[in-house]
Amino acid sequence: MFKHKVLVPDHNVRAEGLDLLQDNGIELTVLQSYSRPEKVIDSSKDVAAILARVTQINKEVLTASPKLKIVSRHGVGYDNVAIDECTKLGIAVTTTGDANSEAVSEYAFAQLISLARHLTRAANEVKSGIWKRDNIVGFELYQKTLGIIGLGRIGSRLAKHALGFGMEVLAYDPYPNRCAIDEVDVSLVSFEKLLQKSDFISLHTPLNSETRNLIGKTELDLMKPTAFLVNTARGGLIDEKALFYSLHHRKIGGAALDVFEQEPVPEDYSLLKLDNLMCSPHVAGQTSEALVRTSIAAAQNILCVFRGEPPKNLVNPEVLKNSSRTNWKVNF
């Protein structure tokens, strides 16, 4: 049993993970998502762990948390956490690995089908009293080319879905995982070739200094005029001004975005007014099964650190050599 306190700054974490922490004697403080920064800072002062979804865990929060041992991300990305500052302070940062990989890959593939068959438009027209079958002519995914940027857990799962539909799959990954490549029948190609040859392009990379605005005007201009862009990863991967221009001028076929540079998206945002954009509020990983798995994985990472054991999916392994916050049971 532990006597530590844990802050959960985002209220929509499934009970299974929270119960696991409380069953181990941990005291929880749960805030509403998108709480004011000063509320998060004030609530962080006496905690040993933060289990975070969307809340920004920045330098101010970390500085206010002298007992903090771990920031356990509820999800795969960690662009809302000040990684370098955590490492400097000896604070572990973890993600939940592939807990939501199936959910996200299924959602990305669903967007491919919806784009190809104009499902959103068809539903909206029928609800508006319009019944014109000849206006809605889609195309098959069979023998089309899917380009996957980032062949990790989610990208490789998406490849399997696409191959099952008879698609050709191209992939670009600057740091390819040979195991993932060997599991699926994909062709590794250059970034430029993928952009030029693909009928669909799906993004599955983390957001960092190397990948911010990975898709901009130059990249969009390389795409086929009939191609579609899908993003279920992070909004900052796409230059949204450049995307607006390409969609508005019909330079590409369309796009489906589950993530945006700014979330929530402003109501008057220009992208939302385009008829060749499908959008959703960052829900690709939101299945009941994935949310339960993710909450449990995030809680287990916290318990590992409290026991002094290296947690799974540790983003900054350098902290294992720093015992200022945690007495690690690790031999080097």
Give the SSE map.
Layout: E1 5-8, H1 15-23, E2 27-30, H2 37-43, E3 49-52, H3 59-63, E4 70-73, H4 83-89, E5 92-94, H5 101-117, H6 119-127, E6 145-149, H7 153-164, E7 168-172, H8 178-183, E8 187-188, H9 191-197, E9 200-203, H10 217-222, E10 228-231, H11 240-248, E11 254-257, E12 277-279, H12 288-306
Parallel strand pairs: 1-2, 1-3, 3-4, 4-5, 6-7, 6-9, 7-8, 9-10, 10-11, 11-12
Helix pairs in contact: 1-12, 5-7
Domain D-isomer specific 2-hydroxyacid dehydrogenase catalytic: 12-316
EC number: 1.1.1.81
Domain D-isomer specific 2-hydroxyacid dehydrogenase NAD-binding: 110-284
Count of folded domains = 2
Name of the CATH architecture of the largest domain: 3-Layer(aba) Sandwich
What would you give as the CATH superfamily of the largest domain? NAD(P)-binding Rossmann-like Domain
Overall pLDDT score? 95
Which ranges are low-confidence, i.e. pLDDT below 50, for 5 or more consecutive residues? none
Number of strands: 12
Helical content stands at 25-40%
The largest sheet is:
7 strands, parallel
Rg calculated over all Cα atoms: 21 Å
The CATH topology of the largest domain, please? Rossmann fold
- Tell the overall outline: globular
Q: Separation of termini?
A: 28 Å
> Any idea of the CATH class of the largest domain?
Alpha Beta
What strand line-up does the widest sheet have?
8-7-6-9-10-11-12
Helix count? 12
Order of helices and strands: EHEHEHEHEHHEHEHEHEHEHEEH
Structural class: alpha/beta
Strand content: 5-15%
